[in-house]
Amino acid sequence: MSNKPCPCGSERNYSDCCQPLHNGEQQPESVEALMRARYSAFVLADDDYLMDSWHPLTSPDDLDLSDNPDWVQLQVISSEQDSEQGRVHFRAFYRDGRKLECLEEHSEFRKVNGRWLYLRGDIQ
Q1: pTM for this one?
Q2: What is the spatial order of strands in the sheet that 85-96 belongs to?
Q3: CA-CA distances (angstroms) from residue 52 to 22, 59, 68, 109?
Q4: What is the predicted pLDDT for the residue at 1?
Q5: CB 71 within 8 Å of CB 42
């Protein structure tokens, strides 16, 4: 997977994009980078990274990705942040049988001890 394009759609190789975040070698420097890494983690069913990057106030006790859809593409519509909080508006496309479906969300992030964490999302 390392030399393949990153699932997040950055047009970079996975090894140069989301893999160092997933491996804990780097921390995302922006809320958009965290959103892209979380999307890639959903594509790869990396529940450890998803749980680790979730704010403790809103994270579930566990995460079951056994019914994870076939994610196809991520579109980041907008991203904004200040020093402590941020928002990302995105669309994630997935296959449901033969149909292409779309999940659209406005996500909120908070910085805790210098790390960006996913707080919550409002699905449109």
Answers
A1: 0.95
A2: 70-81, 85-96, 99-112, 115-123
A3: 10, 9, 18, 13
A4: 65
A5: yes
